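User: Assemble these into one structure.

Assistant: Restating your components, then the assembled model:
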Amino acid sequence: DTAVSQTPKYLVTQMGNDKSIKCEQNLGHDTMYWYKQDSKKFLKIMFSYNNKELIINETVPNRFSPKSPDKAHLNLHINSLELGDSAVYFCASSQGLLTPSNQPQHFGDGTRLSIL
Amino acid sequence: GQSLEQPSEVTAVEGAIVQINCTYQTSGFYGLSWYQQHDGGAPTFLSYNALDGLEETGRFSSFLSRSDSYGYLLLQELQMKDSASYFCAVSAGGSYIPTFGRGTSLIVHP
């Protein structure tokens, strides 16, 4: 049983195209995230949604637009792809946002985006 | 803002003990997490410390000193499969969403 699944696993496309990455979690978690990991493995948060509501929107170009149709899904749409968008994008989820103690994040396997 | 420092690379031999340090600067500290990521894989949660002291989970232990803004991950009886990147992450500020360090690449030699 896959806890956090994202598709596609690989995405190769040309500069200027628009693409989407889908993410679903079956853990019953309230909070979902998108992270970008660059070639130096720096893992940077992009967005966080709690119960379908946008909580965190880091300094990400507005070409990136997350959409959460329900709390089990958080998709990422990217317009006008640029060379610098090449990275691995990870979806993650956690039980909650503003609760104490341990809130481990569960990550999907990543989407490797390559811009030609 | 928040900042974390951890070594970029650590090497050790099979069966040894290795310690990966993490220092952080932040306000409104909640806790320090550790994640493991194998090449081509997803980060997976290892441990979380909110209070000072040592937390042990099998061969892995994690330590936190809030007064020193410092923590470490201790890996004992190293195995080849422990070769991976290890990230410390600090939860602070208005939410518990962790900010990740740049990761430490652990290379275990036979």
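The mean pLDDT of chain A is 91.
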